[in-house]
Amino acid sequence: MTDGAATTPPTAGRRRGGRGTGTPRAAVSTVKYRRLKHRFPPIPVVSEDELEAIHDASLTILEEMGMDFMHPGARDILKKAGADVREGSERVRFDRNLILQAIKSCPSEFTLHARNPERNVQIGGKNLVFAQVASPPNCSDLQGGRRAGNQVDFRNMVRLAQRYDIVHASGGYPVEPVDLHASVRHLDCLSDIAKLTDKPFHAYSLGKERNQDGLEIARIARGISREQMEAEPSLFSIINSSSPLRLDTPMLQGIIEMSSRNQIIMLTPFTLAGAMAPVTIAGALAQQNAEALAGIAFTQMVRPGAPVVYGGFTSNVDMKTGAPAFGTPEYMKAVLAGGQLCRKYGIPYRTSNVCAANTVDAQAAYESVFSLWAVIQAGGNFIMHSAGWMEGGLTASFEKFIVDVDLLQMVAEFLTPLDVSPAGLGLDAVREVGPGGHYFGTAHTLERFENAFYSPIVSDWRNFETWQEAGSPTAIQKANAVWQKELAAYERPPMDAAIEEELDAFVARRKQEGGAPTDF
């Protein structure tokens, strides 16, 4: 099958041309968005001296204050590697040279494998990967309003992500299905993602059993041996430090389970300036960098060369309410500085498309545009929450998913090189039209019309009169119609019957065994 909306944006059939009339109707587009690359030099937000000051402050934090590692086995690994681990204490201090030596083995680029090899994604370098929204406890749409996450909405959001080439990976559960018991939720969710999409996916680090079940589901879905999976990273996990300066037991267990098997860790401190980090952006960045470096170094102590990504999530809070703020100038500066730090260390960079808006409105749009612009300027490699994030991460919105897909496709087109070949320069068309004509019917235009970029999906380029005649649809109303249309057109990607049978049998067995503990 093809990705429907990935190659045929839903608005492709409308007339374009603003106030003009008689423009041709759009044909089926064959645009693909599977292999995106940064084309422009990343933008620095601080000088080299200032970057060095942040780096040095981070290492000072790890030397003097240290960081709590709450997993006894992790502390054993750290002590063996040379960290300062004292009897009866969770606090670990690091000589800066130990940190710098450990991160030298981090790979600068690697492949995350999907069950469909055409969906493999390359992480690092100039590669740009977009992952769907992940982990909100609520979801929303125009029909049902805001509600607790459930399995039906979870599955529908997974299906929508499959419909668009611009969404390259699952970032986790697009909404948390709280109607499934926590002990077996991961089994249902991961097997659903493995069957409903053929893209790479994520497993939460919430105890050894969930990691190991996720690893086995990813292996079975790809139909490979454990040895091949160890050679070909096929699963990733986001590891959040509990800022300030703490890595808890489930997160550390996740690193041990994943890194020891050569699977991907994205180490992401959750540093909000003024709440879990110093109120200044430079101070918050120094703490973010200290937490990230300590966690990344630990992955290399578990297994040198294990694939790891540096995650930045520093933003500010509303100091009147304590609520997180996203898509702000402070967030943008932190994203840019995070990119500079990653380039300094030669480690791939994970960041996010986020907003704090409570509905799909102007705030939601401009905060997401600010976030995405920072991501591109910073040279981000793996972008979490790319489509669907609302309310500071508390809600996944079906309409916002569609609006964000619009934005992502616009970013992709912005990154598409200009065609400055003789054909692209179009001198023959200029000769044909001459002064005072138009280009709608020229061979040069019509030859390229099928491959033209027809998004935005929900924007409306008609004049006021024709827009009014159509019922004056707003962006959120159009997005609502689009997601329902695309969900109806969804087709499940094929899976070998024997693989699906093995996957179902594994899930059934693990459920019978009780799944995973809920007291971690």
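[next item in queue]
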Amino acid sequence: MSLYKRLWLAVIFMLSLVFGGSFIVSSLSAKAYLEEQLRMKNADNATALALSLTQQGADEVLLELTLSAQFDTGFYEMIQLADPEGQVTILREDTQAADDAPAWFIKLFPITGEPGIASVMNGWQQVGVLTLRSHSRFAYAELWQSTQKMALVFLVAMILAGILGSYLLKTILRPLDDVVEQAKAIGERRFITIPEPKTLEFRKVANSMNNLSARIKQMLAQEAKRLEKWQREAHVDKVTSLMKREPFMKGLEAALDSDDVNSTGSLCLIRLSGLMPLNQKYGHKVIDSMLGDMGKALNKIAVEHSRWAASRLNGSDFALMAPREMNADEAAREVQAVFQEILENRSMEHDMSLPGAATIYEHGDGIGAIMTRLDSSMLIAEREGESHINIAHKGDIQLTTVREQMGEWRARFEQAFAEHQFSLAGFPAVNTKGEILHMEAPVRMELGGEIISAGRFLPWINRLEMSGLLDQEVIDLALRLIEEKGQPVCVNLSVAAVVEPAFLNWLSQRLAAHSNAANMLWMEISESMAFRHLQSFKMLCNRARDHNVKIGIEHMGHQLAELGELHDVGVDYLKVDANFVRDINDNVANQNLLRNLCTVGHSIGVIVIGENVRTDEEWETLKEIGADGATGPGIKI
């Protein structure tokens, strides 16, 4: 029972107690007063009537006529005249019950007035004793009317007290609603703060909970800085602040093995031709400053796009991985342009050329083949001109233009949506005991009788801005799969699920219509999209919680500096990007990084899952550092 109801019951009980006590006291007081009035009236009437009879002499006929006339007035219950020996000579009595008040009321408050007694004389001789008792029905009528009025007054008072009490309770308990909401949010792993109420007791509770939320937020911020520092030391080139070669290559390899929108895109290589002579001419300090500016410019390009990554592969080679970018030369020309501007600002444009090479990579390509294509294209670019960019096509076959490909893919997607040619695959995500957490369900599409992976068509569906339709299709497929198999299913959602307001309303309707299946649905958004659209992501999390859907962040680990922003989001799980999981059994830096990430995740009540685990050694290492689960080709059930 809620506190509000308990307080209301207490108020009602107290008012009822006060009313009952007042009613009883008032009724008993009125009863006693009326009984006293009856006694006095009986005594006065008896004395007056006895005096009147005395003055009439002892004539029996006159006595009886006088007493009968007096009784017939209707005010008396009994008039009796007894002789000196106690024998009743005249008796007039009304035996009818009082009907001016309910029987239960008369029974509850019986009125017993003492009769009036007086002597009737004839000179100095006593004729008899007169006993008189007034009728109590008038007293009952008066007591009943006064009780009704008192009850009405108390009823009105209780109604007014209820209205006033309701207002006061709402006013007093309004801060409690905020405290309850904060407690509920903390239970949902959302460490929010609220204004401290004026009520002392509530203020103490709110202050304690605010301090808890503040400490969690501060802890997350500190751990985020520490994690970012370790990540930079292990993965970032000190001169350019770009990713080192090894983590960059692991990221590329993870992208090629992945089954999502990032498994297809562009990879470009820009070479600083003539860097060695510049070192000799200007000195390392000047050149390092120039390389630092180039690194900042390249990082700026990368952070403006989801999951793009930049690296300094060696002294003079810079690389940019651009997932979902299907124009291979655009990313390369953008990098080349910012590098050229930096050289011009330093008046070095004539001392160095910027040849480049670019290619399209696809899901399943090998790193060796891609880098061979780029190296061959770079040699051609260096021979053809100072800042020429050469495009390396897979198999040396000229691809159709992007515009033509977009037209072809649009027709394919329209047919696929119309004929529901999408399906879900299934890969287990397990906990440390080998129990299934959920089945990862990447989307598949039928194309020309062949089932193709998400990595092949997701870049085009995003480019054609049809990802919102695909999200709806995926949710419907997942709910049906849960109802058929009875297993938890996890689906990946695009940025459209976060930024399009209409999707939230559609999602609520679907989940409400499949409430049982919704309890076993898991949804996840990529790290870059979650942090880029944090407020919208919070709204999606709130909507998911309303329907008991678990929600998490995938590809976690690239924006650790923003980890503190999760203090009031309330996610259920984090999936560590495969880039950090790959060969983690031999990578001490990544072990330390993920160990602390697991600690931070557990401190806010979320589970941490490793992505794309390939070997038993990787899985065992993840268990040792505190991961709660894993998924990938190396996971078997």
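[queue empty]
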